[in-house]
């Protein structure tokens, strides 16, 4: 293909800042920003625009506003392929206990049978609620219309929720497909995987011309557990938005030492190991305070556990925090801990380091592959986590050096570098097509 015009990417994602629930939306923002800086033309498809997205810098397709024409012959031919989205279990990632409800079964053929005009728009919440699978199916239907209407060179999909949509876009357009794996079902659920999610992930990986993953750890999982061909799986480590170190006046800080956990409160993130390590530390340093920021299916369970362990006066649950609130928390934090059981990458340590906070991370994380100025421990070794926290609190000069070096190191882990690698993957793929 000619190098004279910009290469166009049709990109599918489930969330985009400022309306995000975790690292996936942050990664979509960083990679898209970087690709634009490197001369790529990106059209980002989301289920719903909430009204505060940066529409001057980024080009969006709002799935809510797409008029789907069912009478198109090519469209109808591919429609039946979405039938595999009839899923009969709850698949609701990234939710609070109150939102963890059963997903209803869906036969996407009903979407046509109830439509006498042969065209329609579909409503999306863009959230992770009880109708998630219905929205995933409708999103795939909309994707076929978008692929028919738009001009592009390559399709790119972020995580399993968008894989069906991207597969349909590839079927309609004949363009090559890149799927981006930010996490696998083995990361989310351990060995007790949801078979339906696994099947959707595997279909996406099999259909892809290239598979991009966020760490060597994830690459090995894709090859060993999903049967991915090694020669089509590429590692592109995540980055962080380049920003100056944030300083907060001492007068605004509480007169106490604060250790922070920030992330979804789910099995994958290891929040229970954080609580157990806190208990061990409080036995020798009783004045330390712990903050658990985020939400998830283990949230209420851990609040009860902290109460049973008589740590309530030293433990604080904030719920989900937005970007500004997260930065404010890092400004008050002395040590950040990420004890993830299985973390494909882990962006939050980079954000903490960017803010000048020393970090402790699990060896079972992708980010440990690229960081030098971080304390690394096994997630299950609660005593080692407690000892690492104690060591940094008792030796502030060591903590400061770690923080200063880490702040410099994170400057070299920018999204623009990740985006350049991604662009190279696109261009190499397009040479073969």
What does this structure look like?
With 433 residues, this protein is α/β, with parallel strands linked by helices. Helices cover 39% and strands 14% of the residues. It is built from 15 helices and 15 strands. Helix 8 links the parallel strand 8 (210-213) and strand 9 (233-235). Helix 1 (23-37) packs across helix 15. Residues 86-110 and 248-252 have low confidence and may be disordered.
Question: What distance lies between the first and last C-alpha atoms, to the nearest angstrom?
Answer: 9 Å
The radius of gyration is 22 Å
Query: Could you tell me the number of beta strands?
Result: 15
List low-confidence stretches: 86-110, 248-252
Q: Main beta sheet: strand number and arrangement?
A: 7 strands, parallel
Sequence of strands across the biggest β-sheet:
3-2-1-6-7-8-9
In percent, how much strand structure appears in the residues?
A: 5-15%
Shape descriptor reads elongated
Derived from helix and strand composition plus strand pairing, the structural class reads alpha/beta
Helix/strand order: EHEEEHHEHEHEHHEHEEHEHEHEHEEHHH
Fraction in helix? 25-40%
Number of helices: 15
User: Mean pLDDT across all residues, rounded?
Assistant: 86
Summarize the structure.
The chain has 433 residues and is of the alpha/beta class. Helix content is 39%, strand content 14%. The chain is built from 15 helices and 15 strands.
Entry keywords:
433 residues; 6-stranded parallel beta sheet; 15 strands; 15 helices
Q: How do the strands and helices of this protein lay out in sequence?
A:
Elements lengths: L7 E5 L10 H15 L3 E6 L12 E4 L5 E2 L3 H7 L30 H4 L5 E2 L11 H18 L4 E5 L4 H11 L3 E5 L3 H5 L5 H13 L2 E4 L2 H11 L6 E3 L22 E5 L8 H12 L6 E5 L5 H10 L6 E5 L3 H10 L2 E4 L9 H7 L4 E4 L12 E3 L4 H13 L1 H15 L4 H17 L2
Parallel strand pairs: 1-2, 1-6, 2-3, 6-7, 7-8, 8-9, 10-11, 10-13, 11-12, 13-14, 14-15
Antiparallel strand pairs: 4-5
Helix pairs in contact: 1-15, 4-5, 5-7, 9-13
């Amino acid at each position: 293909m000619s190098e004279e015009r910009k290469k166009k990417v049709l990109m599918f994602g489930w969330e985009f800042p400022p309306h995000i629930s975790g690292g996936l939306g942050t990664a979509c923002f960083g990679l898209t920003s970087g690709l634009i800086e490197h001369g790529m033309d990106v059209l980002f498809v989301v289920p719903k625009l909430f009204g505060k997205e940066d529409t001057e810098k980024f080009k969006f397709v709002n799935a809510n506003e797409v008029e789907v024409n069912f009478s198109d012959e090519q469209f109808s031919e591919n429609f039946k392929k979405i039938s595999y989205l009839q899923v009969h279990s709850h698949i609701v990632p990234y939710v609070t206990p109150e939102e963890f409800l059963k997903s209803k079964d869906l036969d996407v053929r009903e979407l046509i049978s109830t439509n006498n005009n042969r065209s329609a728009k579909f409503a999306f919440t863009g959230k992770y609620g009880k109708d998630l699978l219905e929205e995933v199916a409708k999103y795939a239907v909309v994707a076929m219309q978008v692929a028919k209407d738009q001009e592009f060179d390559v399709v790119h999909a972020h995580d399993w929720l968008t894989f069906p949509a991207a597969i349909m876009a590839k079927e309609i357009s004949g363009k090559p497909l890149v799927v981006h794996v930010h996490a696998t079902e083995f990361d989310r659920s351990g060995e007790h995987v949801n078979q339906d999610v696994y099947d959707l992930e595997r279909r996406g990986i099999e259909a892809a011309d290239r598979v991009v993953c966020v760490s060597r750890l994830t690459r090995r999982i894709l090859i060993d557990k999903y049967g991915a061909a090694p020669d089509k799986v590429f590692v592109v480590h995540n980055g962080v938005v380049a920003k100056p170190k944030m300083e907060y006046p001492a007068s605004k800080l509480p007169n106490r030492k604060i250790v922070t956990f920030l992330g979804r409160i789910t099995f994958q993130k290891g929040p229970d190991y954080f609580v157990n390590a806190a208990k061990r530390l409080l036995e020798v340093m009783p004045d330390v305070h712990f903050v658990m920021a985020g939400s998830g299916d283990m949230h209420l369970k851990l609040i009860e556990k902290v109460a049973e362990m008589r740590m309530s006066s030293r433990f604080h649950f904030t719920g989900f925090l937005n970007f500004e609130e997260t930065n404010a928390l890092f400004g008050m934090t002395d040590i950040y801990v990420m004890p993830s059981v299985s973390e494909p990458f882990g962006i939050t340590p980079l954000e903490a380091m960017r803010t000048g906070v020393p970090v402790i991370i699990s060896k079972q994380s992708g980010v440990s592959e690229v960081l030098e100025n971080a304390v690394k421990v096994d997630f299950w070794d609660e005593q080692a986590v407690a000892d690492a926290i104690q060591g940094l609190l008792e030796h502030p000069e060591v903590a400061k050096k770690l923080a200063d070096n880490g702040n410099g190191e994170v400057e070299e882990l920018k999204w623009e570098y990740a985006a350049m690698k991604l662009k190279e993957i696109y261009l190499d793929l397009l040479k073969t097509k």
